[in-house]
Amino acid sequence: MNAMTMPKDIIANWEPRHAALFGNHVVKLQHRLADSGLFTRDALGKLIERCPQNELGLVSRSTDKDNPERLNGILGDASGVDAISAIEKGKMWMNIRRVMDWAPEYRELLDKVFDEFERRMPGTKTNRHNLGVLISSPNAKVYYHADIQGQLLWQIEGKKTVYVYPTTEIFAPERSIEKIMLRETDEDMAYQPWYDDFATAVELNPGEMVTWPLYAPHRVANHDVLNISVTMEHWSKPIWNSYAVRYGNGVLRRALKLNRLSTRDTGLGVYPKAAATFAWKRLGRQVKGDVNPTKSFRIDVKAPEGRVAI
To answer: Which of 4, 209, 233, 247 could join 154 via S-S bond, C-beta 3.0 to 4.6 A?
Structure first.
């Protein structure tokens, strides 16, 4: 287990205005996560080796330029530090998921982060916190998608550009959000290049973090350098109400063929849609579990692209 030095404050430049902006607009802040000592390459190498197999995601793309196929891989017998070096050579992404569940020192840091946010935003209560670590190759891209929880993205090493898009029906169609919630699809959404004319582009350097409005579509482009980032997710009563309404709308579309449905997430209208959400899940109608993908490569730090076919 790594020794941790807990910074007094994680956020370095909080201002009172950020309390009103948080969750409603794109907000970029400076942070001190690196001061904890938990995100050095050595510390992350040990974390990779501790990670349960089902919480370690490793993805690449095939070399077919016209139709690049998503490939899934395994760590194999590579050390954690070697895995980071291999990712630095090739076009890969590693997602270390739900770290707080099996690494207590990261849980301690996660709790401190949200305690700090709640202290600075009186009346705000969050729950179901989640922490993951993303390690991705130079020039890697995360495609246009949306998330259903509150999101924070913290840059540790490298540089990337995050493009955040409006939450209007044009960019984030309600039916697309519903499909993500009902797990009929993953988080990817249809994208057109002209969407970029309306995006907010945020450059993230080490020691910077960004958050954006709920359901705001976004995509990420690494610069020509290895990137190490931390993701944090959270729920709150407003987020839960919004989820219940939109999930309930999805249920009503499918069960009763209704179409003209409100997304208002306050007032008495929330409760029947929350009941529909509960009933749909209780009846086993939601897609269960994730697809167990075929593994087609393993890490090999000696290989030119850091991986070899299985």
So the answer is: 209
Where does 90-217 show beta strands of DSSP type E? 92-96, 126-136, 141-145, 150-157, 160-164, 200-204, 208-211
pLDDT tens for residues 103-127? 999 999 999 999 999 999 999 999 9
Report if residue 269 sits inside a domain: no
Which residues 6+ apart lie within 8 Å of 241 measured at CB? Answer: 265, 266, 270, 274
Q: Please state, in angstroms and rounded to a whole number, the distance separating the CA atoms of residues 145 and 166.
A: 12
Residues in the chain: 310
Q: Per-residue pLDDT for 205 more than 70?
A: yes
19-29 CB burial, b ≥16 within 10 A, e <16: eeebbeebbbb
CATH code, domain with 222: 2.60.120.650
Strand partners, 208: 30
Structure tokens at 178: 């519903």
> How far is the C-alpha of 152 from the C-alpha of 115, rounded, in Å?
14
Does a structural domain hold residue 197? yes
Among residues 114, 120, 127, 145, which one has the least CA distance to residue 240?
127
